[in-house]
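Entry 14. Structure prediction run on the chain below.
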Amino acid sequence: APPPAAREAEHPAGRTHPETGRKCLFVNVAHTARFKGMTEEESAPILDYLFRHQVRPEFTCRFRWRRGSVAFWDNRAAQHNPVNDYHGHRRVMRRITLAGERPR
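Output returned:
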């Protein structure tokens, strides 16, 4: 595997959706470590606040799976947060990723 520094990417923490013009957060608890020019320790309080903010119930959609269901979302303005609540059932997923612009 490449060294950690080689796996880093830099993106804006906020972005404008290229089609709708709406502003959105572009941070993720699993992948955002710090802000540019700040240490992880300096960034932590702000990121913790943003991570808690983006999962508030009024910003979430709970999808109820049924046989034949299809779900899709725009990763430029939404986050996928899978919940392991299907004990005893097999979950089959297929993922596609479309080419797109760099976040700005």
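Residues 15 and 21 are 9 Å apart (CA to CA).
Filed with the rest of this week's runs.
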